[in-house]
Design a protein that fits this description.
Layout lengths: L2 H19 L2 H30 L4 H11 L2 H12 L4 H11 L2 H13 L4 H10 L2 H10 L7 H35 L5 H17 L3 H16 L7 H21 L7
């Protein structure tokens, strides 16, 4: 390949890249992913903490975070790595945990089959659970025309880009924060962060967020109650607050 053809190919890739960034569906995919990125970022932060707390070095944790890019597989493999389990056991465990991605890939085949192999591999690496769900919810069927295929591809790239960057940033922060945490905090603290991540991902609506804040405040206020009845009190307070606020938000005359 001559220098002229190389420069032409590079220029064509650059133009395609900037066209992708300026595609409105790329921004739409990133915006939709931003609505759930907070919950996944907390989950990633917890995964980073768990890696260093399980005995892995910072370098090993960073390498695993960048190469694996799968929180559930990482958490499933950590106890096996800490116990010095055989490599095939670790690989098999991670494979079983991530079998859902085989189903995802079969469904996405019709969306991406027209792309070159290298680009499909890159998309496969960066596609997570939520970016897949957002894509098929926004576009239930693959594109038939070149314009439709470009729209679906741009939307997937937008969600993948924001999802990957937010996940890796939070994971790396968790790795270095876990390194600095006192040893006696251990994996119990990581478990608390995991529950926090699940809570934040579920509190997508304003009423749910307010109910979560009420539950947290009630838990702190009722912490001294015996037999952990403070948890029951917090649930009752959150449910009552949610029902009351939903009643206030409902237009007058509308039946429940």
């Amino acid at each position: 390949m001559t220098d002229v053809s190389v420069r032409a190919a590079c220029g064509q890739r650059q133009r395609a890249f900037f066209q992708l960034l300026h595609n409105p569906f790329f921004r739409a995919g990133a915006q939709d992913m931003a609505g759930v990125a907070l919950g996944t970022s907390v989950w990633s932060f917890m995964t980073g903490v768990a890696m260093v707390k399980s005995g892995m070095s910072v370098a090993e944790s960073v390498l695993m975070a960048l190469l694996v890019y799968a929180g559930s597989a990482q958490l499933a493999a950590l106890p096996l790595i800490a116990a010095a389990a055989p490599l095939w056991v670790i690989w098999l465990t991670a494979l079983c945990v991530n079998l859902r991605f085989v189903v995802f890939s079969l469904h996405l085949r019709a969306y991406l089959i027209h792309l070159p192999l290298l680009r499909r591999l890159l998309l496969g690496y960066t596609t997570g659970d939520l970016s897949y769900v957002l894509l098929v919810r926004r576009f239930p069927a693959p594109g038939r025309t070149p314009r439709q295929r470009r729209a679906r591809l741009a939307y997937l790239w937008g969600g993948n880009a924001l999802g990957w960057c937010s996940w890796q940033a939070a994971g790396l922060a968790g790795i270095f924060a876990g390194r600095a945490m006192p040893p006696d905090w251990g994996l119990e603290f990581a478990g608390t962060l995991a529950l926090l991540g699940v809570t934040l991902s579920l509190a997508g609506r304003r009423l749910r967020g307010i109910a979560a804040l009420v539950a947290g405040a009630a838990t702190v206020a009722a912490h001294a109650m015996p037999y952990r009845l403070g948890i029951v009190a917090a649930i009752a307070a959150a449910v009552s607050a949610g029902l009351a606020l939903e009643g206030l938000a409902r237009p007058r005359g509308q039946c429940p």
